[in-house]
Structures are given as C-alpha cells and as structure tokens.
Amino acid sequence: MSTTAVLPVTSLEAKSPSLFLKVLAVMGMMTLMGGSITGLMTYLNQGYSELFFDQWIRAFFTAAVTVMPLGFAFMALLTKLAERFLPNTSEKKRNVLIGMTMAMVMESGMALSTAVNSVGFADTSKLVNTWLDTLVSALPLALLLMAVVSVTLKPRVERFLKS
C-alpha cells in the first residue's frame, strides 16, 4: 500500500494582504506625494536654513492629518463619479483626469497648510499672497507627480487595497 502526502488546502490558497500592509501602502503614497510637495513649498516660502527641516516636518504633518485624509476620500469619490459619468472613457484617461483634478485640490490644501505654517493667520493678506505664490510655484511638481502616480501607482494600490 502506498502512502501519499496530502498538502493542506489552506497553504495553496492566496491570502489577502493584512490591514497593516494596506495601511503601510497608503502611508507610503502619502509620504511620497505629501513629503515632496510640502518640502518644495517650504523651500519656496522660506528658503533653506537651519530651520528648514523643522518647518518642513511641521508642514508635512499638518497636511498629513488635515489635507491628505480629505484628499483620499475626495479621490475615492472622484473615481466613482468618473466611472459612472465617463463609462466609455478608458481607465487610463479617467485616471489622468482624476490625477489632474486631485493635483489642484491637494496642491491648494497643502499650499494653504504650508502658508499657515510659514506666516500664520495674523495677516490675512500676507497669508493669501503666500498661499497663491506657493500654489503657483509648486504646481508643476504636483501635476507631474499626480499624472505619474495616477497612471502607475494608483491602479496598483487600488487593486492591492481591494484584495
């Protein structure tokens, strides 16, 4: 009588990624996008000095707890709306459209949080001017990052998060 080894079925099944890995993926995207843009904005507002890293970290964390969570929720909403109202448009084109829209929205929010961090609320005229200057100056980087991320990383991260 011959014996055969039986492998447990569970070892052959694909396991979905843990919640920890999913949170880590989102945090990685937040750090890449938010860190790059707030770093540039901090540099544009204050230049490079011994206070740069402190100002940058403060601007990044302010954006990370305010602008970015709202941005991720808004991106999910925009994705659903684009799928619904642009069903005949390719996913790549929808992602580029969403990316450009998100670049403007996120850029505006991060420019505001960085401007508040740089000049405060005391002089609203200076705050508005700093926000606008920061927004316009950093916009090329934000548009480039959002276009690249929307076409390359966003679809992969969405599939990863749905698994």
TrEMBL record:
It comes from the Bacteria. Keywords: Membrane, Transmembrane, Transmembrane helix. Pfam families: DUF2798. The chain crosses the membrane at residues 20-44, 56-77, 97-122, 134-153. InterPro entries: DUF2798. This is DUF2798 domain-containing protein.
